[in-house]
Write a structure and sequence with these properties.
Length: 255
């Protein structure tokens, strides 16, 4: 049965979408059947996986607001073994349109339940906010994977995120776990990156992935070609590191 992982951190620009795209694609390249769900109105995961945000027929918005069934909204085999439930700017209206809707915390979960047997992994990219869209991702998920950028303010905001996850555990989804944190944009040339990793390890009582994602310019370039890193530059450090992360995620699930 599918394992559902939300990639979340309300802090902007920490590498959520880069991780969601490339973890999904790496899992797919390892033969796992993957569904990638884009819960961010920015739609960067969709475009980074080669979907034209403005041409796509049905999106997460239609699923959440228009009650369109999930199967109608999924783009199949965007890449071998990888289906995508896309989003675009339409989704930015959802937060307001959901006011007063019954069971609004569970709309995504109820739809994902219909298809989750088909997948080994479902990866959900969250927006940089603790919004109803993120709550929908968290009620749908088995666990939350938190990317942390290796920079000075890395820990800022993390306690609110953990508090939100705990509230969701208490009130909406008792099975939700914290998958762990993954360091992103590690720069081996600076002491700062190393200090951040040491500091977080000392202060955060959570599973920390052994794989550290380096700062790698190929990772930043790939989305403009609509490709995950393993297709854009198979020999890059970025490809190697996200493949290692995918293996860790698979092994953790089998423990
Ligand atoms: P948002 O909060 O806006 O959704 P995010 O957390 O999803 O942002 P990304 O979009 O993945 O973050 O990354 C922010 C920027 O940093 C992007 O331009 C991306 O290409 C770049 N980036 C992410 N990870 C890396 C990396 N390991 N090496 C180099 N650039 C990276
Ligand atoms: Mg993003």
């Amino acid at each position: 049965m599918g394992r559902i992982i939300a990639i979340a951190n309300q802090k902007g620009g920490v590498g959520k979408t880069t991780t969601a795209i490339n973890l999904s694609a790496s899992l797919a390249s390892l033969g796992k059947k993957v569904l990638a769900i884009d819960m961010d109105p920015q739609g960067n995961m969709s475009s980074g996986l080669g979907i034209d945000k403005n041409e796509v027929e049905k999106t997460v918005y239609d699923l959440i607001i228009e009650n369109i069934g999930i199967e109608e909204c999924i783009c199949e085999e965007v890449i071998e073994n990888l289906d995508v439930l896309p989003s675009n700017i339409d989704l930015s209206a959802a937060e307001i349109e959901l006011i007063g809707v019954d069971n609004k915390e569970y709309i995504l979960r109820d739809e994902v339940n219909k298809v989750k047997e088909k997948y080994d992994f479902i990866i959900i990219d969250c927006p940089p906010a603790l919004s109803m869209l993120t709550i929908n991702a968290m009620t749908t998920s088995d666990s939350v994977l938190v990317p942390i950028q290796c920079e000075y303010y890395a820990l800022e905001g993390l306690s609110q995120l953990i508090h939100t996850i705990e509230l969701v555990q208490e009130r909406l989804n008792p099975a939700l776990e914290i998958e762990g944190v993954v360091f992103t944009m590690y720069d081996a040339r600076t002491n700062l990156s190393l200090q951040v990793v040491e500091n977080v390890k000392d202060n955060l009582n959570q599973n920390i992935y052994k794989t550290i994602i380096p700062r790698n310019v190929r990772l930043a370039e790939a989305p403009s070609y609509g490709m995950p890193i393993n297709l854009y530059d198979p020999k890059s450090k970025g490809t190697e590191s996200y493949l290692l992360l995918a293996e860790e995620v698979i092994n953790k699930g089998e423990e």
